[in-house]
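Throughout this review, each integer encodes one residue's backbone shape. One record appears below.

===
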Amino acid sequence: MAQESKKQMPLLLSLFWQFAKIGLFTFGGGLAMLSLIERACVEKKQWITHDEMLEVTVLAEATPGPIAVNAATYVGYKKKGFLGAVCATVGVVLPSFLVILAISVFFDRFLEIVWVRHAFCGIKIAVALLITDAGVRLIRKLPKKPLPLLLAGGCFAAMLLTDIFAWSVSSLTLMLAAGAVSAAVFAVRALKEKRGGERP
């Protein structure tokens, strides 16, 4: 039992450390973290596959809670069960918590520093690039079939129009609509295959 615990510790520490680095050096929230999570968990550590990363992204976006936290919990649980999920989740949350706690103590003085204001201007650009990178990676991994491409293009156009015309349409509504369309198409195809199989 003791030897088994020792074998588990390096991986648990690695889960914590990898997600702590992501949580510490990534600005802009979960979407900006996705590309770094993929590099760390898929390309570097090979804890999950590219297809699993795509599924993690969809599940993390569709379920309550921050995307990065949901993704960390999934990866940690897949590798080391409950303890892995705890280590990965604490790792991605702890740096942000400590930084925000430190900033909140000196918030007024913090914003008065000129170089801090300029630094945040640069960070905004980096966040936009990180989110764009994550989006491009996801689009590349989409199945090259008409339905996924049509849904992705339709959702992109809808989000663009909501921004241009300031419509109050939630992204959750678009996600549910895309899921409903996909489920309906799947049900129709399954019904046609069933009927085809019943023919003499």
Remarks:
- The chain has two domains: 2-141, 144-200.
- The chain has a mean pLDDT of 79.
- The radius of gyration is 21 Å.
